[in-house]
Amino acid sequence: MLTEPGVHRGLPSRSLTLVVTMDGTVDLPDGRFATLCGGLHHEAVMITHDGFQHGVQCDLTPLGMRAFFGMPAGELADTTVGLDVLDAPASELRERVRTATTWTDRFAQLDLVLGRLLRPVRQQVEVAWAWQRLAAGAPVGEIAAEVGWSRQHLSARFAAEYGLTPKIMGRVMRFERANRMLRGERRPTLTEVAAACGYTDQAHFNRDWRALCGATPTEWMAAELPFVQGSEPPEVARL
What we know:
Layout: E1 6-10, E2 16-23, E3 26-28, E4 31-33, E5 35-38, E6 45-49, E7 54-60, H1 62-69, E8 80-81, H2 90-99, H3 103-115, H4 125-135, H5 140-147, H6 151-162, H7 166-182, H8 190-196, H9 202-213, H10 217-230, E9 236-238
Parallel strand pairs: 7-9
Antiparallel strand pairs: 1-6, 2-5, 2-7, 3-4, 5-8
Helix pairs in contact: 2-3, 4-5, 4-7
Organism: Lentzea indica
Domain HTH araC/xylS-type: 124-223
Protein name: Helix-turn-helix transcriptional regulator
């Protein structure tokens, strides 16, 4: 992908981020990475780039984190590490992706290497249910009542698994829905997005965006919308 050199915001979402570069590195405050896995976070991650980025990015579910690397997503909350730190064959994976000649083959090599890492997954039923209900927009108090836990116990167990509390994760999921609407082919007004995603008003929408993104929706669209539109598939996969 080609764009103007500068700083790009890696936005909070419900997915961990796995990246394998084909040229150069991904330059973050945590370091420079040829391969990486970034945990769930509740603030934008600033990515410095020279205008050229070439590689494969995968959206990794928390369950996928356990299946591939044998640990809960909570262990990577608000941080990024190289894949070698997770005992993954980072060098082999990067070499296979770099030497493949088509995107189909690159994704096949990704499947091959990561497939060797797969292991049985165990996850607490109540915590997994809470994630699904948050994704559906249910309030935290209602979810706690459904699983028979206090809000405090639910928050502690949820944060241990995912790294963020249910309240913060709910904000992130709502933010992600709004972000996807703004990146669609038919871009709605900010008022329409705020109403559709459950913000109480435009001021609430702007406050949440500034807290999670570091900019208002209008500022983000002006600075970064061309960047994120240019980074869509075929270079993105979901695991």
